[in-house]
Design a protein that fits this description.
- Belongs to the RNA methyltransferase RlmH family.
- The chain starts with a strand and ends in an 8-residue tail after the last helix.
- It has a five-stranded parallel beta sheet with strand order 2-1-4-3-5.
- It contains five helices and five strands.
- With 156 residues, the protein is of the alpha/beta class.
- The longest helix has 19 residues, at 130-148.
- Helix 1 runs parallel beside helix 5 (130-148).
Amino acid sequence: MKAKLIAVGERAPRWVAEGFGEYQKRLSHWLPLDLVEIEPGLRGKGRDAARATQDEGARVLAALPKQATVVALDGRGRTWSSEQLAQRLEHWRGQGRDLAFLIGGPEGHSPEVITRADEQWSLGPLTLPHMLVRLVLAEQLYRAAALLANHPYHRA
C-alpha cells in the first residue's frame, strides 16, 4: 500500500518541508508517502473565492490515484486519537487499496471533493495553517504505523 498527500499550496516553508521529509523518510518502509502539490486557485480583489475552490477541487480530483481510498482533511470530519488512527490504518491496509489524503485551500474543499472522499478526518477544533497540517499528518501517520509495528516511538 502506498499513500499520497494531495495538498493545495506550493512552496512550503523550509521548516515544513524538512519536517515533512523527515517523517516521509521514516514512513518509507511502512507506508510510502508521496506529496503532490496543487496550484492554488486565483484569489484577491475582484476574484471569486468559490471559483478558486472549484478550480482547486478539479485539480485535486485529477491527481487522485485510481481506486484509492480517499480521506479528506476537513474540520467537520471525525477526530481520531493516535490509537484510533492506527486502527483506521490497519483497516485501510486490509482493503488492499492505496490511500490519498487531501488538504484543501483557504476555503477548504470543493463540494465535489467532499462527495468523492470516502472519509473525512478532522485534526481537531483548532484552525491550523495548511502547511502545518502537512507536517502533522505525516507525523501522525508515522505514529500510527509505529503503533502497528510495536515500535517504541509512541509511548502513551
